[in-house]
Amino acid sequence: MTSTKRAAIVGTGHRAQLFTEGLAHREHIDVAAFCDPNPVRMEHHNRLLSVAGRAPAATYGPDDFKKLLDVERIDTVVVTTVDVLHDEYIVAALRAGCRVVTEKPMTTDADRCRKVLDAVADTGGDLSVAFNYRFNPVHELVRREISGGSIGEVLSVHFEWLLDVRHGADYFRRWHREKDKSGGLMVHKASHHFDLVNWWLGTRPQRVFGQGRLGFYGRENGERTGYRRDYERAHNSPAAADDPFALHLADNDGLRALYLDAESVDGYCRDRNVFGDGITIEDDMAVLVGYDSGASMSYHLTAYSPCEGYRVMFNGTAGRLELDVEESVWQRPRAKVTSAKGSVHGDTALDNAGGARILVRPLWQQPREIEIPEFDHAGHGGGDARMLRALFDGEDSDAATATEVDGALALATGLAANSAFVHGLPVAIDDVVRIP
User: For residues 381 and 209, what is the distance between their CA atoms, to the nearest angstrom?
Assistant: First the structure.
């Protein structure tokens, strides 16, 4: 890199730390500004810059975002806000001539998606969606095997994803539990997997059908199963003291700084009861997707499993490929969940991690196992660090950086599934949003 770029990070919650810390260690990038409604969280991120030996960034509220772009002479904007706000900052930054990197999902509904696609088309701007799973070395091995013809033409895929009762439960403690803010797990999380399948197969989704429900979390379910404890939020609640589903913010320095110490500013509560009221997302979802290649995928997401991981089976005209990733194995429930890392947030190595296996089963031949390099569970299997190098250092990779079209295709699959959950009918992707 020959010149220093000036970056702004919009949204300074937990996930933004990846970008603050990652950019702080790149001499060719200055983190020049943060934008967030909460000055306490922005100050926490400035401390992260200080630890890396970098100067503090200017801080702005959301109403001053356009002023930030102009005054701070921003080249690159990284968007890590609440999902429903992504489009506002993406569109404004593109129209100001900035390059934009946004956390997935790109946005949360069809109208917002259309605004983003139109802004890219109008400006010719550069928008990348941070689908870090593409950069996981194991996922790249799978793509090489499929594109190399190991199993012939892929006719069908089965994808099972298990979130355990630490990581999975965390989506029901925070703002993600409200579907109008996150789009539900079909949009916020499963878009990772929908993008992976699009990328693995080199195809586009056409039609989606599905069924989903809230069957485990929420007040009614907690009372039925006996898991519910009577508290609104865990902090200072005797009823939550030994609840294995509770998150204890005061016992973790990072959570305390980002959330507990910042509550007085905006009232955001990060440790709500997963068996409380007001949960509008599903925790058990089954989806069937048809692709323009003729392939189909059955997909199941369970957010209340005793273990965590995912299994993907590809059935082709010349055999079958099986990917099995066990991210956590069963363990005794801890009386206190105190960390934003590991299985609570899913981005750090787990103390009870399993492993990954790729098995190719050709027709008429013995199965063969694909050798996998040392598998680091930290940073989404090494995907975070490799994605940052591709996005900000120009490092070549087998994994192409996801564009606005990739973001829209993954989003539309989740939105179509959500519609099918409500109406009980198959949904065409083109009826959700027209994607170039």
Answer: 30
